[in-house]
Design brief:
α1 packs across α2 (35-47). The chain is 59% helix and 0% strand. The protein has helices spanning 16-29, 35-47, 51-59, 61-70. The chain is mainly α and 78 residues long.
Length: 78
């Protein structure tokens, strides 16, 4: 079994980081006053992620990997 070692917070290699970024932006646009409201808001926002957004991240994954290889681990357009 070959395992691809990659940074856990690299949007180039971990598409979930793109979703976390989207959630972070949504949270910062709100002025939530307590942890309970933050938790509820995050659960609601996470559930609202369009299927098309998730599908696009999965679809582009091979291109992301190829771009990182070409960039020799450096930054990519992703």
């Amino acid at each position: 079994l070959n395992v691809l070692e990659c940074p856990s917070q690299s949007p180039d290699l971990n598409p979930v980081e793109n979703l976390w970024h989207d959630l972070k932006i949504a949270v910062h646009q709100r002025n939530l006053s307590n942890l309970k409201k933050l938790e509820q808001f995050c659960l609601e926002e996470w559930a609202k992620i369009p299927v098309a957004r998730r599908a696009k991240l999965i679809e582009t994954y091979p291109k992301r990997l190829a771009a990182v290889i070409v960039a020799k681990g450096g930054s990519t357009m992703y």
